[in-house]
């Protein structure tokens, strides 16, 4: 958090100087493109060779601190179509917040998947993790980002990478939303990743799950981010059992007691409103197992889902609306 605050202070000082100068042609041009993502070619260290796109805030002259949203796509997805179909662009406009879209290069992975399981790509020395952190730093020094309101979300491989980022930089993120995700750092090979996706097994102990996440984390974590975990009960790509593993992993990190058995999760999923674990009245971990939902993000706007097969209409369930409540939109 100290690192983020130093980025923000530097950016605010630069903004004060820029106010005395004429408007930048680059800023004027970006204003014209605010409804489409802007590609940022030079955002800082990029050892993961990722691409950065950003939806700038609608109000370019705003001074009030705003949230920062990061959305990680899944395998085979078009990041722009995913952001639109999932409701995240509308959510960012509602919050007047910049929305970062890290995009995997097809030269890195032919299906466009983030390498969420490879030791060389996650953790504080991980290539893709460093690239995503550079994008966050760029946003914090470009927009009036509130360092206490940085939120990350993702689907499938994007959710697994988002979870790894939350474990690696817990002091940076306020919260995360993970859709069809997987537990952090329990497998390290493509074969192991595929097995975990399909089976959600073995049923790791809470101690092991916590240890796997803490390997990536700094030694003195002051607080862990709030987590909202979502999974469709008819997901045929990533077993819903992974939602239980992921929930137990963050429950252990938060030191929250539970009586959940991963293999019993489908029987525990009768309520769409989810299962919440709280401390002092604040929900720190929530689990939403959605009947009828496949490998997708749920929306109650059918017209949105038409542009992305990984966004699915579900009556009465809208992930973006839930995010708005979680992030106090």
UniProtKB/TrEMBL annotation:
It comes from the Bacteria. It is an enzyme of class 3 (hydrolase). Its EC number is 3.1.1.75. The keyword Hydrolase applies. Keywords: Hydrolase, Signal. GO terms for molecular function: poly(3-hydroxybutyrate) depolymerase activity. The keyword Hydrolase applies. GO terms for cellular component: extracellular region. This is Poly(3-hydroxyalkanoate) depolymerase. It comes from Granulibacter bethesdensis (strain ATCC BAA-1260 / CGDNIH1).
């Amino acid at each position: 958090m100290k690192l983020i605050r130093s980025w923000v202070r530097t950016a605010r000082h630069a903004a004060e100087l820029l106010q005395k100068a004429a408007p930048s042609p680059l800023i004027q041009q970006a204003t014209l493109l605010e409804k489409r993502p802007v590609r940022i070619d030079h955002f800082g260290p990029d050892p993961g060779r990722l691409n950065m796109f950003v939806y700038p805030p609608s109000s370019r002259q705003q001074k009030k601190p705003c949230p920062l949203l990061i959305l990680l796509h899944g395998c085979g997805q078009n990041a722009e179509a995913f952001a639109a179909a999932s409701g995240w662009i509308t959510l960012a406009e509602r919050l007047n917040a910049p929305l970062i879209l890290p995009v995997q290069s097809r030269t890195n992975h032919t299906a466009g998947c983030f390498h969420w399981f490879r030791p060389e790509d996650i953790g504080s020395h991980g290539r893709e993790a460093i690239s995503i952190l550079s994008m966050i730093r760029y946003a914090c020094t470009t927009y009036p980002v509130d360092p206490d309101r940085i939120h990350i979300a993702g689907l499938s491989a994007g959710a697994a990478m988002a979870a790894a980022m939350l474990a690696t930089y817990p002091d940076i993120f306020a919260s995360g939303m993970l859709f069809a995700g997987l537990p952090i750092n329990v497998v390290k090979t493509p074969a192991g990743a595929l097995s975990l996706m399909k089976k959600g097994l073995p049923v790791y102990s809470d101690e092991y799950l916590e240890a796997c996440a803490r390997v990536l984390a700094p030694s003195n974590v002051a607080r862990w981010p709030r987590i909202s975990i979502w999974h469709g009960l008819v997901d045929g790509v990533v077993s819903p059992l992974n939602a239980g593993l992921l929930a137990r992993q963050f429950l252990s990190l938060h030191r929250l007691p539970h009586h959940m058995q991963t293999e019993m999760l489908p029987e525990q999923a009768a309520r769409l409103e989810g299962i919440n674990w709280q401390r002092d009245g604040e929900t720190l971990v929530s689990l939403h197992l959605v009947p009828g939902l496949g490998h997708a993000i749920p929306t109650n706007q059918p017209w949105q889902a038409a542009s992305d097969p990984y966004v699915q209409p579900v009556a009465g369930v809208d992930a973006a609306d839930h995010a708005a409540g979680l992030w106090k939109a």
